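Per reviewer request, we include the raw input and output of the structure prediction for the construct analysed in the revised manuscript.
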Amino acid sequence: MLPPMEFSEVVRRRRMVRRYDDRPVDPAVLDRMLEHATRAPSAGFTQGWAFLRLDTPESVARFWRATSPDEGASNDWLDGMRTAPVVIVPLSHKDAYLTRYAEEDKESSHQRWPVPYWHIDTGMAAMLILQTAVDEGLGACFFGIPDGCTQSFRDEFGVPPEFKPIGAITVGHRLPDTGSKGSPSRRRRRAVDEVVHRNGW
């Protein structure tokens, strides 16, 4: 196990990694990633999330078959992502929030909520998985499951209809060649002063 990084270094090093070597990921590291995910904030402490952990070659291959509109497709992004030995799928559970906010200490209609917190909370849990990967010396990438493949994904893994995948995360040992370079190779990072408005817009 690597010594933990300073938090600022974890944040600085986090990036989407799109190609991995063939070493397996220590199951204990995956345990830590998912334990950290459950420490994410959640409205009403609802914890309306679930995580599908795919950590065998067979289950990962099933994931790519179920979520690829064209099984024979090949491109830099897909070929690199398929090298990941692990896929974690974070799922949100809207009904858990509706039930929680109908309880006596809440009694708040979700129709008054400005945003769907079930997705936001699950997204924050996903971010903790990404940050833990960096802290453990691994690479990871969050990406979306194509809308037309959601049902085939559900069918393949028996996911109940009340759980919605908000995306998926590949995890593995990163290679110097991280595959498809993605948008950061074409777009600069916006400066803090461009996005932070102090004491007013």
